[in-house]
Structures are given as structure tokens and as C-alpha cells.
Amino acid sequence: MGLTLSLLLVGALALVAYALSGNMPAVFGIWVPYAASTLFLVGMVYRVIDWARSPVPFRITTTCGQAKSLPWIRSEPLESPSGLISVLGRMFLEVLFFRSLFRNSKADVHGGPKLVYGSSKWLWIFAMLFHWSFLVTFIRHLRFFTEPVPFLVTLAHSLDGIFEIGVPALYITNALILLALSCLLVRRIIVPHLRYISLLTDYLPLIMLFGIVLSGVIMRYFVKTDVVAAKKLIMSLLVFSPAIPDGLGAAFYIHLFLVCVFFALFPVTKLSHMAGVFLSPTRNLANTNRVKRHINPWNAPVKVHTYEEWEDEFSDRLKAAGYQLERD
Amino acid sequence: MALKLRHDEVMNFDLRPSGKGWMDTKPEFSKGTYCFSGVRKHVEYLEQPNPREWQPYDDDWKLPERWEETIIKGFEDRLSRFRSFKLFMDICVRCGACSDKCHYFIGSGDPKNMPVLRAELMRSVYRKRFTAAGKILGRLVGARDIDEAVLKEWFYYFYQCTECRRCSVFCPYGIDTAEITMIGRELLNMVGLNINWIIEPASNCFRTGNHLGIQPHTFKDNIEFAVDEIESITGIRVNPTINRRGAEVLFIIPSADIFADPHIFTFYGYLTLFHEIGLDYTFSAYASEGGNFGLFFSHEMVKRLNAKIYAEAKRLGVKYIIGGECGHMWRVMHQYMDTMNGPAETKGDPVSSITGTRFDHARATKMVHICEFTSDLIHHKKLNLDPSRNDAYRVTFHDSCNPARAMGMLEEPRIVIKSSCNNFFEMPENTIREQTFCCGSGSGLGTDENLEMRMRGGLPRANAVKHVHDRHGVNMLSCICAIDKATLPALMDYWVGGVEVCGVHELLGNALMMKGEKERTVNLRGEELAAKEKSNA
Questions:
Q1: Rounded distance, CA B88 to CA A277, Å?
Q2: Engineered SS bond to B482: which of A14, B242, B254, B405, CB 3.0-4.6 Å?
């Protein structure tokens, strides 16, 4: 149901943009982008501040390798960090290369019973393909947001089209992101336990991204959109003197509208994992528990059973057993 | 006690969930899959909420008035106190990487034992009560309100999680189900839902100092019994002391070590070792328990029970503390103790008086794991070991969850084992070290009425042992956890057969050639030593 509904929703969004953008370009070209950017920025800042407002009372690092202990035992700082540098290293691997997901395996129960664990890198591969394609695509798009265009953006742009297949040159990431999205979606549909746990909010981002990529591809390769006009609009938005140039068709508005809705949803959906991953206490804390005292801001006094109370309670038996008592 | 079900009766499931959505299915409290409720007098002794007579199989759980409000308030309070909890409610993308990492899921096929769904049991309520989308869209976005059925579901599945943290190793965001379960159990406890196998040990521990409720005179008797046994085996009379002021080291053990079988043999190992190296140490009858069952239902109780350790270290004026072989005890000592009850007020630093090694990695807590201490002795060649005395054993090692995934202590026990025996075989790599599988009985679930779930949850561990048992003839499963030692024997009997369980320091005690000992004819278990084969190495 989540899947069907997602398809309907995204279809409806596209239809709305298609039907109405011609008559109200200012809404779709100016107000929606402003509203979405505000929701995204304010929402994400709020989200992060909200998370950060809750303290980290205990240092609960998950150790995935040998800790630094005795000097002659080789430790694995990236799996069990012993300080800031190794935490940064661990986070770097986690955020950019999905280290933990790379460990993924698959358990099967055969007759006997006999358990078999297979390597299972598919999810990692799809996730890497998707996120990296998304990042490159995002960087590529910065050429619409900058003047002069930074070298790195131009580089991403030209590298992405390096194979020069077709005119205009096909972006590698266009193909890869579609492939990755398809795989992630198919995986969610055909793997029984994934289908079982999937919610509307799991399908919706995937379907939206499909819509975004497809409308982008259509614009670039099929209904040729005036990129100069697109850049003009975006630059005018950036300097807060918005003006709608001529020559932007429905495909552009569909693309823009879906992008806007997508970003507006970030703070209130699981997409917030983009920021949350940096805050995860099991990953971003060093395993230095016994080296340095970790302070819990709400550490409150508790009722304990003191030695004196204990001694009083058992004093006869303690005496009979020959214990030395404090109160003698 | 043995499980009556045949293997094929236990394995009558498919790991692929199907049928109705998870919100429309409810757990069945069938015999063998849940634990009995906390006994009233222990709930009262610990001053926990809503003491009463009730059982999970009753229809009426006798919940207090306005319990929903209590739960939601407690929920909100914990969202504001634990960033982990708040974050883990928000950022899961349901990628499914954790799903088949849980031993309970693998052994039961129950989809709600997938860590992701276990957490969704709480997230669904979180969405309904604390997010706008959940309030408006409800079930469409996976939100549902708390009601009695949901509460029962929480109870069922939060007490079907051993808080082993294996799933958190694989989660791309490090979401730790243990954290969610711990807080879930804390909320349940607020309305009087707890289990006796946790409440009773906690209550005993608070009162007497240890889980079993062993009083100081019996504590002493048990240690003397061990001294006698050691003398008959080695000819040497060791001389442990209790509550002795001015000792260099306070030695904390899980109390099962002084009375349960096979724990006691590990205890002999500790005593022979300390005697041999002349360590100046003392036990405490007041802090006679390192284990902490508070960890299994409330952060506050962890602190209440743990306070004795530092208090006693200070009273006795020791320089530092050594801790014995125990899993969750070490999660507390490593990740909670100093924060909760520190800073440590000892008279010195953790420095081995035998090797001179300064245990810098424990300089704040002043507490060293015995495997660290012993592997340091071995590294400095301070021990005379004859591993051939363990030749009857073909040994493998079960990494206990907490030392592996909360401390990162993987090598030290292996150093001790490899120096103490000649035949050591690792289990498959997906089942050891940070990927180790739980015994299936951790976090207070090791009780007999829960036997079916324990055997299910222990299947992945047992299956890996079976692999090395079949391939290498492994007949001894070593480990460094008291709950392992208590529960793995039944697990081995049910799934494998012909495999015994021991502590790492039992192996060491067997191999230890003590100055002035008589020729050993039996090992620490009193079993005849096999005719020694001359090693030509």
C-alpha cells in the first residue's frame, strides 16, 4: 500500500506542477522554492539542535575491534577508537564509505539445522552507488547556483559526462542513480522481511527521487530546457530579487517542484539520517571509558545500601564468622 | 532442565515473514517463551512501582491507574535525557541490515525479533505521541498509540532481547537496540512490569551484596571450601582474605564464581594464580558481586548496586581493583561505573606489582580486567605454564558480548587460552570477536521457564560450536562470562552434545605450574589428567 500511495502521491505532485505552473509560474518558480528552502534549512537546524539538546549521559561506544589496552597488543583504532583522530577516522569511513554496512552478511538456516553466513554486499553497493551519484549530481547542479562556476563543480560536470555518449553528453550518474534507485526499490519489494517492515515513508523518498531524476533526464535529453533561463531564475532567487525568465517549460517546473517537496520533507522524515549519522553516540565516541571520566549532566544521587548499614544488618553473622568489624 | 521439544519442532519456521502486517499480529504468551513476573517482596524491597501478584499469562496485568500517562511521561523524560534514544527514534531508514543479525530472530523466525521491528514497537508510539506527522497521518506513517496490547507486546519482545548489541555493529547509523530495550524495560518497570529473574538478584544484591543472597559467613565458607579443594589438587594451601584493609588490590567477581558449577573451577584458577604470583589482594563480602542486574531494568538501579564497588575500594584503601570473568559486569565497569559513581578514590594507580606494567587504559576507573592482568603476566613470562595439562581439552572460545562489543577486549583472553592449552580452534569468523553471538540467555533471561526461547536464541552460538566440534573435535567451550557459564552447558547439551563449558582462568589454573606443588594427577575439576605426551616442539 505504501508503494501504491507513493506512486500516486508523486504522480499527483508532478501533475499539479504540470497543470498549474504555466498559469502561476511565480508560485512554482519563486514561492515554492523559497518555502522549501526555508523548511529544509530551519527544519534541519531545529532537528539537529533538538537532538543535541538531549545529553549523552554515558559513553556507549560500540567496539568493533580490539581496543587500545596493553602496548604490545595491536589495537584497531578505526573499529575501537582511542581518541579524537581515530574517532574522526571512524566517522569518515562511516559517513563516506558506509563502513558498518560493508560488514553486512546474510544468515540462512538449512536443514539440520545448519546456519550459513554469506557475504552480502548488495545493500552496500546499492547504497554507495546511490549516495555517491546523488552527491555528484548535487555538485554538478551547483553550476546553476554560482557565478563564476567553481573549478570543482566544472570538474564534476565534465567528469560525469566524460564518455561523451550522445548529445548532450550522457551523465554517468544519471544512469547509475537510476540503477541504484531501481535496485533499492526492487529490494524493498521482493525481499520478504523488507517488504514487511517498509512504511510509506520508506517508499516515498525512493519514488520521489525517481520522479526527480526522470524529470531531469527528460529536460536534458528530450524536451530541451533552456539552461540559461534556469540559471537566471535560480540566481535571481539567490539574490532575493526573483524574476521569472521566459522559456522554462513544464518539465522544469515538475523537476523543481519535486525537488522542493523532497527537501522540505528532510527534517520530518527518515531523510534526517543525513545529519543524524554524525551524532550517533555508539560511533562518534572514543572507547576511552576507563581512561577519562565521562560526565553525565543529570547524574542524580540514589539510595544505596552503605557498608555501615550492611554491617549492622549482618553483625552477628559477621562476628561469628570472625570478620573484623568497623564498629568494634 | 532440558527442553523437551525436538530440534525439528523448534525449527518449524521460515525466516521470511508473510501474512498480516506486524501491527495486526500480537504475541502469544506460550509456555517457554517468557519469564515470570517479579516477586512482590523483592519489588517492594527495592521500592519499585506497583508491587502485586501477577503473571504474564494472566489476562489482567493489574496495571496502575493512568498507566498510559506514566509511560508517555517516562518516554518524554528519557527522550530529553538520552540523545541515543531520541536519535534512534528518528533516523532508522529500515534498510534491514540488522534483521538477520539477531540470534532470537534466527532461532525463532518471529519478525518482531528483527532488531528493526523491535525498535519499531517503540517508534510507532513515539511517532503517534511526539511527531506531527504521526499525530496527523497515524498508521499511514507507522504510528499507533499505546494501549494494553501494545504494552504486552513491549513486555514480550523487550524481554526477548539480550541487549547483546550485535545488531549495532552492522547498523549504518550505529543504532543500538540494547539502548532501546533498556529504556523500554525502564518504562515497563515504571508501571510494575518486570521479571523475577532480574528483580530477585537485584534485590539480593542490594541487601547482601550479591545475587544469590549469600550472607557473609557463607561467603567465607565457600571461599574456604575452594581453598581446601585447591589444596587437595595441588598440595598448596592458598590464603585469600576478605574485607582486609590495606590490601593492594580489591578483587571483584561475579558471585556465581564461588558456588556454581562450572564457575567454581575458574575461581580455583584465580586463587592459584594470585597465590603463585604473591598478589596482595582481598575479597569483599560487602561488595561480593560484580554483576549488576540493575542493568537489565533501570539505569538508576545500575548505580544503586554499583556504588558498593568504589565505596569498598575506598574503605579498604586499596590501590586498584581487578575484576573477574563476567560479561555484563564489565559493561557496567567499563561504560557506566566511573560516570555513575566515580571518580574512584583509591590509594594508587592500576600498576601490576609483579611486572611493573601500568595499566594506562584503566587509569581513571582504576579497574583492570583479569584477562588483561594475566595476559600481562604471560607477556612478561612471569608464569610457568604447562599447556599439556589441558591436552584432554580441544578448546574454542566464545567472545562474551559485552567484553567484545562494549570493551573491545578480544585479544587478552585469547593470549591466556593459547598459553594455557595446545588445542585451540576458532569458530567461524561471522560468529566470533565483534560479531560474536550471544548465549541466548543474557540480560536476565537465563531462567528455566524461558528455556525454549533460550535454546532458540542460543542456536547461532551453538551451531558455530557444533561446526568446530564436528570438524576439530572441540569438546570445551571457554568463555569469560558468568551467565555464559550458567547457561551454555544446557545449550550445548541441547544442540551439540559432548561439549563442556569452562572459564579462561580454569584453563590457566590447570596449566599453572606452582612453586612447591605436588605432581598434579587431576585437573581443577578433579578429572584424571591424561597420560602426558612428550611434546617434541
A1: 10
A2: B254
Say what the ipTM of the complex is: 0.95
**Percent of all residues in chain A with a pLDDT value above 70, rounded to a whole number:** 100
What cell numbers appear for B500 in the block? 563442556
Q: Which backbone phi and psi does A289 adopt, to 5 degrees?
A: -55, -40
Report the range of poorest mean pLDDT among A85-99, B206-220, B521-535: B521-535
Which residue pairs, CB below 8 angstroms and at least 24 apart, start in A119-127? A122/A183, A122/A187, A123/A187, A123/B95, A123/B96, A123/B97, A124/A98, A126/A180, A126/A183, A126/A184, A126/A187, A127/A98, A127/A101, A127/A180, A127/A184, A127/B95, A127/B172
Find where cell 585451540 sits. B424
Q: How much is the pLDDT for A326?
A: 87
Q: Against a cut of 0.90, is the pTM above it? A: yes
The DSSP output letter for B479 is: E
CA angle B406, B317, B312 (to 5 degrees): 55
Does residue A241 sit at the B interface (CB-CB below 8 Å)? no
Measured between beta carbons, which residues in chain A are less than 8 angstroms from residue B138?
none
Min mean pLDDT across A218-222, B124-128, B191-195 is at A218-222
Per-residue cell: B488: 551454555
- How far apart (Å, rounded) are the C-alpha atoms in residues B121 and B103? 18
pLDDT of res. A165: 81
CA distance B116 to chain A (A): 8
User: B360: exposed, middle or buried (C-beta count within 10 Å: 0-12, 13-18, 19+)?
Assistant: middle
pLDDT at B536 over 80: no
Report the C-alpha gap between A51 and A63 in whole angstroms. 23
**Residue A245 predicted with pLDDT over 50:** yes
Contacts of B356 in chain A (CB under 8 A): none
What string of H, E and C letters represents the secondary structure of chain A? Answer: CHHHHHHHHHHHHHHHHHHHCCCCHHHHHHHHHHHHHHHHHHHHHHHHHHHHHCCCCCCCCCCCCCCCCCCCCCCCCCCCCCCHHHHHHHHHHHHHHCHHHHCCEEEEEECCCEEEEEECCHHHHHHHHHHHHHHHHHHHHHHHCCCCCCHHHHHHHHHHCCCCCCCCCCCHHHHHHHHHHHHHHHHHHHCHHHHHHCCHHHHHHHHHHHHHHHHHHHHHHHCCCCHHHHHHHHHHHHCCCCCCCCCCCHHHHHHHHHHHHHHHHHHHCHHHHHHHHHHCHHHHCCCCCCCCCCCCCCCCCCCCCCHHHHHHHCHHHHHHCCCCCCCC
Which of B374, B319, B306, B392 lies closest to B350 in space, CA to CA?
A: B319
pLDDT of B533 reads 47
C-alpha dihedral sign at B313, B316, B319, B320: negative
pLDDT at A224: 81
CB pair distance less than 8 Å for A276 and B303: no
Q: Is A8 on the interface with B (CB under 8 A)?
A: no
Determine the Cα–Cα distance for residues B129 and B153; give it in Å rounded to an integer.
Answer: 18
Torsion of CA B200, B202, B206, B209, to 10 degrees: 90
Cβ atoms B275, B238 nearer than 8 A: yes
- What tens digit of pLDDT does each residue of B77-105 get? 999 999 999 999 999 999 999 999 999 99
Mean confidence (pLDDT) of chain B: 96
Instruction: Give tens-digit pLDDT for B284-298.
Output: 999 999 999 999 999
* Cβ-based neighbour number of residue B358 at 10 Å: 13
Rounded-to-integer distance, Cα B144 and Cα B121, Å: 9
Distance (Å) from the alpha carbon of B528 to chain A's nearest alpha carbon: 35
* Model pLDDT, residue B532: 45
Q: Does A51 touch chain B (CB under 8 A)?
A: yes
Mutate to test the interface with B, among A87, A125, A289 (most CBs of B within 10 A): A289
